[in-house]
């Protein structure tokens, strides 16, 4: 069967299926997913200029949807807004996901006590978007929390820095919680990838278990008084991996740190693989690598980031691997 790359891009009220190149970077580790759309600058639509003046076709704040696939079987790979228009050759539309809305509103308030959900609900009083919110621990107490003239995005980033709570959009849903704590088969799928024919290039480095030097630095935020407990496990001189838990005792926290350190002390790969556009992979999924020739390359890995690109060079996914996943 012949696979033909097809796409549909919607910016504001304009829909088109031509471009020089599109790149979408998506990760739970980043606050904002981004997309760059490159199109010929010397274009007019109904005799309107593309970027100049009040009648311009493309404007900052326009809604953006990017769909791509093969033979008109499209998957929506990005939804968001135009954040910037760069008048280069070719023209570049720099887009951000719905986190762009949080960057447009400023907040100032001091809470004597506030939970994660209450804080996000406060931000949503001024950020009006068509999305739902999914939490890991909505009732987690943050204690006293002060917002001193900051955007909504800056407030969410402060949650990441201070409490290890990541906020990110994926497929139109705002997720708020600790890394890899969102669960369910809809959220985390296991995607099989074979080195032939799915994987067309890799940048993988094999790490033997004995050479994995990792120190887990675990923090538990207690629900009653916002007190923080800490525990460490692994190699004292290893790469520090910070993790956060909610309302765990000191003994339980130490067990969790010990168990997590053990998951890093396994032989496996670091790096990324590049595939065609299908099968579709998202950050947070588990890719199950299989190689009929080199069995050491077999195994499941959590996905930290996916960078998609399509254009004259075809449709590619660069999938950045995180730690090895359990077999469960």
What does this protein structure show overall?
This protein has 328 residues and is mainly beta. It has four domains: 5-97, Baseplate protein-like domain - beta roll fold (Phage tail proteins - horseshoe like beta roll fold), CATH 2.30.300.10; 102-177, 3-Layer(bab) Sandwich (Phage tail protein beta-alpha-beta fold), CATH 3.55.50; 187-210 and 266-308, no CATH class; 213-264. The protein contains four helices and 21 strands. Strands 1, 2, 3, 4, 5, 6, 7, 13, 14, 18, 19, 20 and 21 form a 13-stranded mixed sheet that branches. A three-stranded mixed sheet has the order 9-12-11, covered by helices on one side. The chain has a three-stranded mixed sheet with strand order 16-15-17, with helices on one face. The radius of gyration is 22 Å and the shape is flat. The mean pLDDT is 89.
Per DSSP E runs of 2 or more residues, the count of β-strands stands at 21
CATH superfamily of the largest domain: Baseplate protein-like domain - beta roll fold
Strand content: over 45%
The domain tally reads 4
Rg, rounded, reads: 22 Å
Mean pLDDT: 89
Number of helices: 4
Helix content: 10-25%
The CATH topology of the largest domain is Phage tail proteins - horseshoe like beta roll fold
Keywords:
single chain, 328 residues, mainly beta, Phage tail proteins - horseshoe like beta roll fold, Phage tail protein beta-alpha-beta fold, 4 domains, 13-stranded mixed β-sheet, three-stranded mixed β-sheet, 4 helices, flat
């Amino acid at each position: 069967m012949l696979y033909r790359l097809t796409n549909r891009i919607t910016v504001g009220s304009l829909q088109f299926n031509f471009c020089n190149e599109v790149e979408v970077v998506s990760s739970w580790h980043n606050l904002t997913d981004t997309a760059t759309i490159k199109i010929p600058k010397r274009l007019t639509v109904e005799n309107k200029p593309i970027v100049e003046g009040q009648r311009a076709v493309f404007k900052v704040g326009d809604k953006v949807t990017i769909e791509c696939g093969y033979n008109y079987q499209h998957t929506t790979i990005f939804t968001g807004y135009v954040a910037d228009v760069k008048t280069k050759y070719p023209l570049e539309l720099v887009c951000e996901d719905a986190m762009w809305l949080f960057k447009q509103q400023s907040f100032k308030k001091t809470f004597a006590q506030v939970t994660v959900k209450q804080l996000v609900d406060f931000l949503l009083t001024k950020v009006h978007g068509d999305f739902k919110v999914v939490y890991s621990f909505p009732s987690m107490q943050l204690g006293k929390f002060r917002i001193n003239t900051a955007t909504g995005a800056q407030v969410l980033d402060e949650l990441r820095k201070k409490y290890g709570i990541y906020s990110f959009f994926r497929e139109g849903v705002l997720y708020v919680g600790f890394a890899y704590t969102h669960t369910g088969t809809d959220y985390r799928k296991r995607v099989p990838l074979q080195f032939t024919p799915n994987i067309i290039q890799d940048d993988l480095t094999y790490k033997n278990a004995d050479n994995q030097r990792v120190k887990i630095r675990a923090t538990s935020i207690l629900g009653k008084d916002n007190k923080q407990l800490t525990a460490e496990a692994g190699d004292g001189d290893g790469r520090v991996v910070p993790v956060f838990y909610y309302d765990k005792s000191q003994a339980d926290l130490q067990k969790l740190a010990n168990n997590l350190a053990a998951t890093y002390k396994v032989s496996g790969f670091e790096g990324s693989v590049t595939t065609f556009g299908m099968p579709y992979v998202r950050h947070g999924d588990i890719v199950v690598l299989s190689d009929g020739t080199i069995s050491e390359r077999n195994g499941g890995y959590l996905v930290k980031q996916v960078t998609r690109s399509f254009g004259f060079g075809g449709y590619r996914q660069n999938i950045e691997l995180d730690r090895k996943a359990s077999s469960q």
